[in-house]
Amino acid sequence: MMSPNPNNDPVVTPHNDLNLSSASDFERIAEDGVEILCEPAHVKGLKRRDIASGEASDVAGLIRFVIGPDGQVTPDLLQKLPGRGLWVKASRDSLDLAVKKNLFARAAKRQVKANADLSDTVCHLLRRRCLDLLGMARREGEIISGFEKVMAAIRSGKAAWIIEATDSADDGRSKILALARAVGSGASVSPKVCGLFSNDELSLALGLENAVHLALVNGKRIRRWKHEVTRLSGFVPLVPPGWNYTEGAQATAPD
């Protein structure tokens, strides 16, 4: 395995399907109709050094930060801000360690300002990003809403993710999660579950009057949603402990 590059330039591991000798480590991608310069998280083998662990890791599991003109450490979730990137594993523990040990200053080789609540800031930004993606998915017809429609989507195998409002009623939520577990115990793969957002947050993001039970189907936004919500899971559990949801656990489908 290649050792991390001390200046945090791209670390690329060989891959039979990827010819980086004839292509830049950066690519132009179109997101939401806007061309941005972005380090592509989906390219296998593209790695960066995590300043908290010192290990080279896939960029898909990292958060990029840049140092602003005022010396402030600034999260760059979309990886498009100018300047040298400093990367940290997408987890609260890693980011808190980087702040506590002043690792941003060490990596940048200059005095920087990293707020003690940087993990909370990143968590908030990732939450906002995930809600925005759900809004885009709904406008593109990739969101199913309503108890009966979500139940039908689970039965048919169309539901890739179930998004339940944190303040949803126990009865309806329990039936949906029980069905998802039952589906996962069979030949199909159980849907992933996200229970981070309130009814008000989901309703506002999706432009719906009462967004409580939702299903995200495979489509244009699913890969980006999975990427962002996976990073978010490093800062907060996706499923509240009280819901007692385990993917693929044996369960009897409700009537």
TrEMBL record:
It holds the Pfam family YlxR. GO terms for molecular function: DNA binding. Keywords: DNA-binding. Residues 48-116 form the YlxR domain. Gene3D superfamilies: 3.30.1330.30, YlxR-like. This is DNA-binding protein. It comes from Asticcacaulis endophyticus.
